[in-house]
Amino acid sequence: MEGASSRDQQSSTSPFFNQKELQGLSSAYEGGGLEKAVSLIQKKITNLEGIELNIAVTGESGTGKSTFINAMRGLRQGDKGAAKVGVKQTTMKPTPYRHPTLPNVCFWDLPGAGTPDFTADKYLAEMNFEQYDFFIIIIHARFKGNDIKLAREIKQLRKDCYFVRSKIDNDLHSMKMGGMKCNEKEELRKIRDDCVSKLKEAGISSPDIFLISSFKINQFDFPALQETLSKNLNDIKKHAFMLSLPNITVKIIDQKKNSLKVKIWMLATMSGAVGAVPIPGLSFSCDIGILVTAIIQFRQYLGLDDASLQRLANIAGKPVGDLKAVVKTPLLGEINKDFVVRMLTGSVFVGISVAEAVFDFIPVFGSLFGAASSFGITYKLLNNVLDELTENAQRVVEAAFGTAPKH
Predict the structure, then answer these.
(1) Taking Cα atoms as reference points, which of 210, 199, 207 lies closest to residue 148?
(2) What is the helix, strand, coil percentage profile of the chain, to 5?
């Protein structure tokens, strides 16, 4: 990676709250009770769900930028909302492509530099680089002068820049078809070393090179690229990026689960305080609407809604029925108020303790805890839902790519 962007100061206690916000949350609770604190939690949830993430994908024309953008969003050419793919210059201005389920995550297909329409100098002046969170420069065969000029400009802006060598599957296939004895691991090492060497010669120190195929997104360096991109974002933008990734590995599913888990204490607090109504047969009140929305969102983020399953089946080249066949949970049916009430009344929940909840960080709201508290019950319910959906998402990945879930 070349050029480190400034990071928001993050609290070691909570991924989504900095230290000043934590102090404000505690003060609000102590001075105004739960209602006052909940308004701050609602503001944070709104921020999480509305955060914008803009990712620029650039490089010379014909390197596979559009195909890569589709792959990152779990789409294929021809799918609704897919970026237009062509061997000629098809992008004449920065074109946004929003994620199909998280529209605040946007990939920008930038015009290829170095064409008659976009000389390097004109390109640098017109692309408005400041608006992007980070850049991905895609090349095929070798890095050229325009790629280096772009990387240096990005570095001057103190933005993160990643280098992707595309169509690696085509290169390996060509070697084999040409009669060469091809040790795939050794050939990949040679290609990587050559890319690194050329970039260092051009003055780009310690470049990260990712060798990928946009048609085999669970192979080569594609999973490593996704993981690296997420690591170098602040916690709130990392949350949005992780949830946008297609489910191509068990590790991605686990990371999504961990990110969603951090929100549960906030949702549980709100459920017991905002619009809470008594549940017949139970000794607590909660906001059923919050729980309905949370379950539907968890299901979608973990790729278990119908549209996400179809997109994954398309990528994996499997019938969608094969993926749906391994899903064993009623949580894929209609989620409404009656369904959630049945979940609450039909299960035996043991109240949680502060020790159990501290894993996700819960502010010092001592009165929220207890065996029959609204907070404790809804917190437990959402954790159980998340666990069940995660297990099913892991089975779907296994059915799609033959990757056994880890336990």
Answers:
(1) 199
(2) 50, 10, 40
Q: Answer whether 261's CB lies under 8 Å from 383's CB.
A: yes
Q: Which two tokens stand for residue 65?
A: 């930028």
Spatial separation of the C-alpha atoms in residues 228 and 98, rounded to whole Å: 21
Contacts of residue 205, Cβ cutoff 8 Å, sequence gap at least 6: 2
- Pairing between β-strand 285-286 and β-strand 277-278 as defined by DSSP bridges: antiparallel
User: Do residues 77 and 67 lie in contact, with contact meaning Cβ atoms separated by under 8 Å?
Assistant: yes
Between CA 77 and CA 96 the distance in angstroms is 16
CB-based contact 52:399 (threshold 8 Å) = no
Mean pLDDT of the chain: 83
pLDDT tens for each residue of 150-190: 888 888 888 899 999 999 998 888 887 766 777 888 999 99
**Model pLDDT for residues 366-404, shown as the tens digit of each residue:** 455 443 477 778 888 999 999 999 999 999 999 999 865
Q: Which of 302, 361, 269 is nearest to 34 (CA)?
A: 269
60 φ/ψ angles, rounded to the nearest 5 degrees: -70, 160
- Tens-digit pLDDT profile for residues 90-109: 557 899 999 999 999 999 99
User: pLDDT tens, 258-269?
Assistant: 999 989 888 988
- Based on its alpha-carbon atoms, the radius of gyration of the chain, rounded to whole angstroms, reads 24
Query: Which stretch of 47-61, 64-78, 265-279 has the lowest confidence by average pLDDT?
Result: 265-279
Write down the pLDDT at residue 347: 63
Distance CA 49, CA 274 (A): 18
What is the C-alpha separation between 391 and 407, in angstroms, rounded? 10
Only one residue has tokens 């000043």, namely 20
Whole-angstrom CA distances from 282 to 8, 138, 222, 288, 336 are: 43, 57, 49, 13, 18
How far is the C-alpha of 189 from the C-alpha of 198, rounded, in Å?
14
DSSP secondary structure code for residue 303 in this structure: T
Q: Are 2 and 151 in contact (CB under 8 A)?
A: yes
Q: Alpha-carbon distance 232 to 160, whole Å?
A: 8
Angle between helices 184-201 and 168-177 (to 10 degrees): 130
